[in-house]
Amino acid sequence: MHRIAILTMNIVKGGGITSVNNLIKILNPISDELHLISTYDQGGENLFQDSNINTSFITHKGGGSKLSRTLNIIWTQIKMSYALLKLINHIETVYLVGDTLFLPALISKIFNKNIITALLSSSVQINEAVNDSFHREIKLVAELNYKLSDLIIIYSKSLINEWSLDKYKDKTHIIQEHFLDFDRFKITKKYEEREKIVGYLGRLSYEKGIMELIQAIPAIKDRIEDVSFLIGGTGPLEDEIVSELEQNNLTKQVQLTGWIPDSDFVDTLNQLKLLVIPSETEGLPYIILESMACGTPVLATNVGSIPDLINDGDNGFIMEDNSVESISMNISRVLEFSQLDKIAREAQSFVEKKFNYETAVKNYESMLDQFQ
After folding, report:
1. Angle 117-123-125 (CA atoms, 0-180°, nearest 5)?
2. What would the CATH number be for the domain defined by 2-179+356-371?
3. pLDDT tens per residue across span 4-46
4. How far is CA 185 from CA 14, 133, 202, 266, in A?
5. Considering the entire predicted model, what is its pTM?
6. Which CATH number fits the domain 191-354, given the four candidates 3.40.50.2000, 3.40.50.620, 3.30.360.10, 1.20.1260.110?
7. What letter would DSSP give residue 259?
8. 172-174 and 274-277 as β-strands: parallel, antiparallel, unpaired?
């Protein structure tokens, strides 16, 4: 058994909550003691009241100038490190979610704790994709984190090269905390009964490729009759998306739902004929697994762990890049595919076999046993 502290920044609605929740569920049966130290957003302090875990939530202020952002991040990591120090004698392993928690990693190294860095995504690639002024500093901090870590966890071998982890491949492990509740994520509406609705569910930000998808819609409508679109989520591009739709007279063909509550999420996936993931960079998005479990085919860019999940024309579809032309051509290709119902069945079967709870627990237990 193990005594573990999980540290993560900015638990928010969506994939971040799901990842941390699943990690806790996996580690609970194989841990003697489990702690969570995290900043939070949108009510995060109430997320884990029913979990068998000790929680320490810390406020974090984002945004502002480069100087204020730097000071806020440093101050937040000082507070997280202080929370870690208060329980340092009770734990043996520090599990860092993300590649930018340098100060907690340094504290863990000073006290000779096992350090695991788990990459849900690459902060370096995300910041470069949005041309963030911090991208050089983020790259330096990530490199320091990798050097301090005893293990680095990623979702597929392809990410070693894509995320420039070649020099750390000897301590890099392929493991997933992904699993689904198949009593919840399931087919509730037969695929052949669904209307021709193309969906995007996720953060409305540049690196997700949402603007390219919006800009591809006119060409798709010229090719495919009776197609409509559903865009679910929130983010910094909301106003720009509304403006783009109004300028192109697409407000009647594109439904903007905003944030979709958990109670409606599965039903929304079961309304779709196709889910599109046009991201520039990804790890292993839960939304892909959830969509496949609901019998909704996925069209996604060839990034991150996605090629390990989706075999084009077998259990989903891959597009070469997220240019407007590529998105338009590939959505049209998929909607004209003659055996979409077969793709939907194959997708559901694939995730049920590979992404179950028992397999996830066994994989993590084997990984942690290396420290015994």
Report:
1. 125
2. 3.40.50.2000
3. 999 998 654 455 677 788 888 899 999 999 999 988 755 454 5
4. 15, 39, 17, 6
5. 0.76
6. 3.40.50.2000
7. S
8. unpaired
